[in-house]
Amino acid sequence: MDARSDRNAIPLAVDLDGTLIATDLLWEGLFILLKKNPLYVFLVPFWLAGGPARLKQAIADRIDIDPASLPYREVLLERLRKEHGEGRKIVLATGTPRKFAEAIAAHLGIFDRVLATDGPHNMTSGRKRASLVAAYGDGGFDYAGNSRHDVRVFDAARSAIVVAPDRHAARWQAAHGAEMVPTPKPTLKTFVKMLRVHQWLKNVLIAVPMVLSHEYFNIDMIWECAVAFVSFCAVASAIYILNDFFDLALDRRHPTKRNRPFASGALSIPFGMGAILVLLSIGIAAGLFLSLEFLGVLGGYIVVTTAYSLSFKRMLLVDVLTLAGLYSIRVLAGAAATGVDVSFWLLAFSIFFFLSLALVKRYVELRTTAIPAGERIAGRGYRTEDQEIVAQAGMASAFSSALVLALYMDSVSVRELYPHPWLVWPLAPIVLYLTMRVWILARRDEMHDDPVVFIIRDWRSQIVVLIGAALLVAGGW
Where along the sequence do coiled-coil regions lie (predicted)? Predict the structure, then answer.
């Protein structure tokens, strides 16, 4: 018998979570469940008290997964397909609930048998080893796995294939010289994408109250703005990670979002949860150096952004009003950090201006998402036929922001604050230029970024903003 025939006579058992797929369905299922109804969080401890199998079964009974969208380890999957085609028996041996395991097996069509968590029996570690030994004998199977739960199964297998190992599996692999399937390692770019560093640009809004009060050279205020900026950046990144957990299934169906670190499986959910705790700790610790008012605003931001991730983002118009409010919260945070009063004019302008930009985001989604008439965009409250009303509302908001600014220019406040008020009048047409240009590019399908980030990055917008800043400074000089 040749080597290939001998190999084909030995079944190959394959773990699922972390091995065949670059994610863990227990964690994914938990976030799908909480997105469905956040109140399930109060039942999770009771399910967990009944053991891991009870928790897995409770989650599986209440949700479904999409096997086609999961991040498979393509190198391993191609190998399994090839060996299955050559006649080798392939077994899916996983601690995942049977409902999920059989759905994946049916989708891939390469497994001859499925061993999975069923009822009270958690198919991991010793139980998985016992099941495979009972079916194929000690040393009568090969096994592919990735974690400390797989080490006991490795010991009973004829040969082991170690995939993306944790430190326990890596130590076992090094000691036994087992085969290693290469998987890409996270890079600095991966962590930058996880943190959404480019979104930190939005937190520059914290400095707006200081700038408008003409305290450009106040060292204390500059320091307070810097600390507030760090605090908001850390907290915002934590919320972005949490949002990614709730949107995994949606992101994987999106042409670009599917490359995000958690959707692609480049980073694990447990790692992300640890990152959330660290980032929240940094954000709150930084906030402790500032006023209680700032901590109150920061707490409000955390509550509203979490509510947005869980629910508001799927509600018609509530989502864009929330986004506009979150931009305004950054302005309020800057005021709370520096002790500067925020005028009615600034808040009114902020709401209309950022509502227009939030509507641009939804308009672009409606333009770029192919859905049948009458159906909503996945995870949103909008339908294709809403395009025109969204665009009209967005442009009306843009003009309203310019109108508020123009009325402010003619107010007593401006005449008291600016020795040369006529120099700041061009700010109204500058705002119109920025917003209308964004809308025109969106209509041309040339708007691919978050519009706020686009304005900050776009060189034409940068020039116009610099002209406006120079006029603002000159008017108050």
Answer: none
